[in-house]
UniProtKB/TrEMBL annotation:
Residues 89-344 form the Tr-type G domain. InterPro entries: G_TR_CS, P-loop_NTPase, T_Tr_GTP-bd_dom, TRAFAC_GTPase_members, Transl_B-barrel_sf. Pfam families: GTP_EFTU. This is Tr-type G domain-containing protein. It comes from Monoraphidium neglectum. Keywords: GTP-binding, Nucleotide-binding.
Amino acid sequence: MQEFKSAPEPAPVRAAPPAETEAPPVPSNGDADAISAAVEELKVSDEPAAAPSVSASSAAAAVEVIPDAPEDEGKVVETYRKLLEEDPRDHLNVVFIGHVDAGKSTLGGQILFVTDQARQLGGWGRAAVLVRAALMPAVDKRTIEKYEREAKDKNRESWYMAYIMDTNEEERVKGITVEVGRAKFETEKRRYTVLDAPGHKNYVPNMIMGAAQADVAVLVISSRKGEYETGFEKGGQTREHAQLAKTLGVVKLIVVVNKLDDSSVVLEGGQWSQERYDDIVKGLTPFLKTAGYNPKKDLTFIPISALSGQNVKNRASKEACPWYQGPTLFEALDSVEIAERPPTAPFRMPIIDKYKDMGTMIMGKSEAGLVSVGDVLQVMPNKLRVKVEAVYRDELESFAAK
Ligand code: GTP
Ligand code: MG
């Protein structure tokens, strides 16, 4: 049976102080400064009970273990069951990282094109963004033709696929990603959120923001003559991004060797160069090993063309790549094993960002447990107790998130 592992989801949570908080009274308007000021005095609630070990290795298995869960966890278990009923598939955040111009946005655009999905606008779940996202058309042939014309006008002919992810004018004119692009797609096995990070060194802080939310990283390498070399040099973002992703807790890395169709490396007759591919794999492996990735368990290498979509969802043609028998990118993503997270463990979520919106919206990737509307949580390190007023998963309001 295909193993489904419980995986984190971005779980923006609107938190406001609970009505029943002990004295001193906590301001109810969610004003972060006032809340912080009140924090010192607050008594801390008891430490949460240790989490029982519950296997969530598959939807079916997870339902089986539910009756064994202790009585007082009934509500959590029921919420978990409802979440599974809604969609038993895992959700994974996938960040695209790598040197500038490696083809990350092109790959993101191609994935949306082949899965017929719309790019999501904006960052986290604000109502205005939700409305606009809902109105975005799926990426169809006509949209692509429009982007082709726009890219041509800007003297960036080959950038039309990247335009699907790079939506603002500055990004399109310069041909570089600035903000982390977000998009969703799904396979039969899993649901994915793509986080398309910028490769340019000026925007490393944005890349960190993307990688911090990710379960898996796709490291995009350009095999084009000179581009692989520059990216991998000291100070190139191939090294920096791979290292940062590891530091930020991303343990699995899929390395896609891209642009094998480029005229600087392609063989006569159009076949992709196995020699170029092997050289790149051999060059990167020792470095990635030093960075902490286990080549046997944590790394997968795939030759691809993001621009023509070969080995992305569909297998590369025999003419282009007769020498590769491994998985496509979609197959590799579907088989990545992610550490299991027991649903009945106390809820834990590092806060990545926040903003005020009738309370305080906090964003992050859930690392353990479930969060439901009405829960009372404790914000560390100042031990502030807050009540959950709304939960958003991938910008859509929900009753709970895991
Ligand atoms: P930043 O966001 O600025 O880091 O760049 P990026 O990694 O998102 O690269 P982007 O997708 O913008 O692509 C850069 C250039 O590479 C564009 O001209 C693409 O058309 C080209 N490119 C991407 N994938 C391929 C490919 O598979 N083959 C060829 N020949 N060109 C590609
Ligand atoms: Mg980009």
